[in-house]
Specification:
The chain is of the alpha/beta class and 346 residues long. It has 2 domains: 165 residues, 3-Layer(aba) Sandwich (D-Maltodextrin-Binding Protein, domain 2), CATH 3.40.190.10; 153 residues, D-Maltodextrin-Binding Protein, domain 2. The N terminus is likely disordered. Keywords: Signal. Pfam families: SBP_bac_6.
């Protein structure tokens, strides 16, 4: 299932896919339909929810803003303000979420997520964006710096995500900006100029981790700016992949979670059953093994703390980190527009 093609992902947007429980529809990233992540829901209801899939956050928002109906969606943190401003979501009743207080406080430290009106976001999973590379073809010293993405020696051998947030995190880090909450015009332009250089080396922009892993496994590219899950897929296929999170300029982190959609027509009870299944401590093992992500629950993370995959892809590191937390919506739209121009060759 995780190796869905881009074509299937696009077609999945037209109607719910993987129909199961008709009383709960989840609009999600491909890969999160793995039952081991929400086993408690299946134990209670005998089947998983109905899923529809998307390839990136902006695509998902546009679909929902255009009237697509679901009960829950799974945006990353920087998108939540956009959902709120558009009036697409409503607060959760945390009295119905017993493990809500187990979520690490740093994942809820924003008025975008919770305020006097309620809790608008349930953070569930987090990961890193860093350099994935073919360890047989790429020397370790080359991935010691993010400048590998503009190195002429790698022309036609790199891949970047077709995601504005991720490529700007890369470009800011590569040009010395480690916090995107207060970017100056000069910092923005410097990052844009660097990204235009990086574009010259790109063989393809990947739309989802399955596409990224296929690009690398086929030999089409040797270096990618990658989430944890693409690396998990490659390792599962015995591909010689490294994940360099400690390039001298740094790497990025992100976290995602669920929002409750106003236009949902499913069961309210099952919405909470699904969220509660995600927040069970046992969900952390399934999340790590299938996708490579960490869990937002401190209790859940404690169950996998000693796993080597945590040490490799999720541990604390001693380089700059650009955290993809909610930033200025106007700045984000500016970045999105500039990225589209860069991809088009302008």
């Amino acid at each position: 299932m995780r190796l869905l093609s881009t074509t299937l992902l696009v077609s999945a947007l037209a109607a719910p896919a993987f129909a199961a429980d008709p009383e709960l529809t989840v609009f999600d990233w491909a890969g999160f339909e793995e039952p081991v992540i929400f086993q408690a829901y299946i134990d209670k209801h005998g089947t998983g929810p109905t899923y529809a899939f998307y390839g990136d956050d902006d695509e998902a928002f546009q679909k929902l803003a255009s009237g697509f109906r679901a009960d829950l969606a799974h945006p990353c943190s920087q998108m939540v303000s956009k959902y709120r401003d558009a009036g697409l979501i409503e607060p959760f009743d945390t009295a119905r979420i017993p493990n809500f207080d187990k979520i690490a406080p740093e994942f809820l430290d924003s008025e975008v997520f919770q305020d006097d009106e309620g809790v608008w976001y349930i953070p569930t999973d987090w990961g890193a964006t860093a350099i994935a590379y073919n360890t047989e073809n790429v020397p370790a010293e080359d991935v010691a710096t993010l400048q590998i993405f503009v190195d002429p020696a790698y022309q036609g051998r790199t891949s970047l995500p077709d995601s504005s947030d991720d490529v700007w995190a890369l470009a800011y880090l590569a040009t010395g900006t480690t916090d995107w909450d207060d970017v100056t015009d000069e910092e923005f332009q410097k990052a844009a100029d660097w990204l235009r250089q990086a574009h010259q080396n790109v063989a393809a922009y990947w739309a989802d981790p399955a596409e990224q892993s296929q690009l690398m496994a086929s030999g089409a590219v040797d270096v990618a700016w990658s989430w944890n899950d693409g690396v998990v897929v490659l390792k599962g296929d015995n591909y010689p992949v490294g994940f360099q999170r400690e390039a001298e300029e740094g790497s990025s982190t992100f976290f995602c979670g669920y929002v409750k959609l106003k236009n949902g027509q499913g069961s309210e009870d099952k919405v909470y059953d699904y969220i509660n299944a995600w927040l069970e401590p046992s969900a952390a093992r399934g999340l790590l093994d299938t996708i490579g992500y960490g869990h937002t629950s401190t209790e859940a993370m404690a169950t996998i703390a000693d796993d080597p995959a945590v040490a490799e892809g999720l541990s604390d590191i001693d380089v700059p980190i650009l955290a993809q937390t909610p930033n200025d919506p106007a700045q984000r739209e500016k970045q999105l527009a500039e990225f589209e121009k860069i991809k088009a060759g302008f």
